[in-house]
Amino acid sequence: MSGPSWTERLAGGFRRTSDRLGENLGGLLGKAALDDATLDAIEEALIATDLGPATAGRIRQRLAGERFALGLTEARLREIVAEEIEAILRPVAQPLEIDAFPRPQVLLVIGVNGSGKTTTIAKLAHLLQEQDYSVMLVAGDTFRAAAIGQLKVWADRIDVPIIAGSEGSDAAGLVFEGVKQGTATGIDALIVDTAGRLQNKAGLMDELAKIRRVLGRLNPAAPHNVVLVLDATTGQNALNQIEVFKETANVTGLVMTKLDGTARGGVLVAAAERFGLPIHAIGLGEGIDDLRPFDPREVARAIAGIEAIAVERRR
Asked: What is the pTM of this model?
């Protein structure tokens, strides 16, 4: 018997978010007409679901422009929320493309400690393996022995080569070695873990600048991607992290993890609306297959609670 489909898992992962949306909207609907006070209350409810003020304002404007002669039902409101979320997510839903030449394509993966960065690197490597790309890892978070050890375990589990040193090793030197070996062996993608030192922006900038200088000697186009890993459970704090890392690390794309089991999944939409950065993949769990590119319509309907209702009906 096969397990749940990705759509069903999305619905389950976003259930707490969609339930929170329903709770926040409770008692606001059913009037014959939408007056300003009701529209204001709906907008506040959407903001409280972590969708962000801009998205909430967009949905309010949409509601104000439509006529609901028989009142606005919760089902219709969820449809409208899903349609507006899909419109926001569609331009940013961009899977990672491995198209650099010469190889390898170098992906720097950044993010604060605790965001799931190291595990996400392994899942990302596995995702690329499934597309028949060869992958090598570099354990560049040399400030934490645990991060080096964890990445080695994952590399062994998914059977990819890894460049690693001891705690305190020079990260730029490891990256240099990784690019050299990757070039010599024809590796398609070189994924580099980096230290998550957001609390020390100067140190982070210095380290990333050194890595870039070293990369430039071997491949002036590298790094080709700077991917920021975000923990959805941090809610609006994830937006602050994007702001800082954009400034310090020239972020080119996002991966959002831990969307399962959080009521703050709406922050995915807020990030898309506010920054417009490509969102390459989303994570729903701890398993190696739990990171996937996403379909904007499926995610929008899951956040709005429509897919969850559909799944329940099928059962």
From this structure: 0.91
